[in-house]
C-alpha cells in the first residue's frame, strides 16, 4: 500500500493506493468519528462490493445504512441526492455519521455534496471504483450535482477524511471506462509533468492490459500531481483551473450529446485535442507535438475528435461553463507538452476554427 | 451607523446597523467583486424595497438580476432554491456575481445556501428586513433549506461578505413578527448576558413601540453576543449550540403544527419556557426566576406555552433534531438567568413533565 497526503491544513487527508484495500476494514474504522456509517453506491457497483465493505464493518460493531442509487451521469441530479437525504433521515443518521461513497465519479460527487450539506456537513470517505474517480474526482474535494442548464452547477468544496483507491476494483471495469480514466491520467502529463507523460508513452500498453504495477504507478503519480495543485489552490482561484484542460470543450460535448452518451473522459480527450489544436493555431505547439498528443490518446483507445455539433453550438454551450469570467471565455491551453496556461485572449475565429478542425469523423 | 465585526479570520465580515442603510448603495458597491449582482427577495418584501436597492446600483453601472420568491416558511424548500438557480443560470450569472438576500430569515437562509452551492460558491450580502433575521439568521453563516422530514436539514456554513441591518425596514414589519424577533433578542440575555437581560426588562415597552434608538441598541447587543459565540465556535462543535435555547422544543412545535403556522420566534419563546421549566425541575432555577422569564416573554407579547401536541409527540419530533448525538437528546438548559448549559443527562420523565406543564392553554 502506498499513501499520499493531500496537504490542506486541518482539512488534510490521506489517499491509500494498492490492491485489496477494500478488504481492510481497519483502514475505515480508524477514520470514523462514531460507529455509524451510510454506504452509498449504485446498482452496478453495489452487487460487486457493498457486502465486502459493509459486513466487516458490521462485524466490528458499526451500524451501517445501505443506499443504492441508479447508475449513470443522468442520475447525478437533485432527485438522486434526495434519495440519499431521505435514506439518511429515515435511518436517523446524525452529524457524527460518516458517509462512504462506493463507486465512480458520479457517486463520489453526489455523496460528497450530500456530506457537505446534510445537517450542514458530516464526515465522508471515498472508495473510488473506477480509474477516473481514483485519479481525479476523489482528490480535491470538488462535489456537485448537475442542473438541467449545466453540469456540476450546484456543489461545494468539501474534503473527504480518507480515500481508498483499491486497484483490484479496476478488474471489473469495462474497457471503455478504463480508457476514459486514462484521459485524465494523460492530462496530468500534458499540463505539468513531462517525465510522467514520457513514462505514459512507454507504459500505455501495460495500462490498457491492466498491469497492476503500472496501474498503481499511474494512479499514484496522477493523485500526486492533483494533490499538489489542489494544495496550492483549493478553491480554484488560479492554478487549479489548469486541471480543466479539455473540460470546457468536453462539457460542451457532454451537454450537446446529452449527459451520459459520451463518457466524461472521452469528452475530455476530444476536448484536450481541441485545446491542443487551438494552442497550435496560437503558435505554442508545432504539428509534431500535436501529433504526439494525438498518438497517446489513440494508444489509450480514446476519441481524438468531437462529435459534429457545429462549431457555433460548441461555443454557445461553452458560454455556460463556470470558467467564464466577466463574459470572457478562459481556456486551458498548452504552451508545450507538460506546460498548461490559462488564457482568456483567444479570438472567436481561432476557437471556432480549432473546433471545426476537430469535430466530426 | 454602528459597525460590528464578526471575527472569523479570512471569512470575517462587518455588520452595519442603523436607519436608512438601504438607501446607501456605496455600502454595497464597495463589497462587490464585479459589477454584477442578483437580488433575491419575496413577494411581500420586493414591492417595498427591491427598487430602492436595485435602481441606485444600476445607476452606478451594476448589472442586476431580480428574483422574487413566494413568501413563507413552507417555501424554504428545494423547489424555491431551484427557482434561484434557474434564474441565475438563465441570466448567466458567473462565479463573480454577488447574491443579495433582501428579506427575512427564510430568504436569508435560502439565498445563503444558494450562494454556498451555486457553482460551488459565490459571494453574498445580507439585507435582513425583519427583526428576527437582523439579530439571528444574518449573523453566523448558517444557511439551509427544510426537508419534509426535518427543518434546516440540508444546508451549509457559509459566511456573507457584509450585512446591512436597516432598522427603518422594521417600520413595515407586522407586530406579530416584531414579537417573534424579540424572542431571539431575549434569548441572548437568557443564555449569556444578564446585564442585557436587565436592560431588556426595562426597555421592552420601547421596543414593542418600535423606538428607533432602543431597536438599534437591541440589534447591536444581540449581534455582538451572537458574533462572539460564532467567532469562538463557527461550526457548532461546542458553545455555539447554546444559541439553540428553546429551539429543540421549538422545532417540534413548528414541525408538529406544520411549518409556518407558528412563527419561528413564537415557537422558540414557548420552547425557551419549556427549557426553563425543565431547568427548574433539575433544581437550577427557582420559581421566581421562572416567573421572571415568563414575564419578559409576556411583555414581548410572545406565547409562553406550546400547543397541545401530546408530550410523547413532542419527544418523537425532537428526536429528529440535529442536536441528537449517539441517540441522546442534548438540550440547552439554564443554570441561571444569563447562563446556559448544554445538557444530555435530563431523564425522559423530567422532559415529558416539563413539556406537559407548558403545553396547551
Q: What is shown here, in short?
A:
The structure is a homodimer of 361-residue chains. By secondary structure, chain A is α/β, with parallel strands linked by helices. Chain A has helices spanning 25-29, 46-59, 78-90, 105-117, 131-137, 175-192, 194-208, 212-232, 247-257, 264-281, 287-299, 311-318, 348-357; strands at residues 2-6, 13-18, 36-42, 63-69, 98-103, 124-128, 142-147, 150-157, 162-166, 324-325, 328-329, 331-336, 339-343.
- Classify the helix fraction of chain A into a percent range: 40-55%
Per CATH, the architecture of the largest domain in chain A is Up-down Bundle
Average pLDDT of chain A, to the nearest integer? Answer: 94
- In total, the number of strands of chain A is 13
Gyration radius of chain A, in Å: 20 Å
Q: Approximately what portion of the residues of chain A adopt beta-strand conformation? A: 15-25%
Oligomeric state of shown chains: homodimer
Amino-to-carboxy terminus distance of chain A: 43 Å
Unreliable spans of chain A = none
How many individual helices of chain A? 13
**CATH-defined fold name of the largest domain in chain A:** Dehydroquinate synthase-like, alpha domain
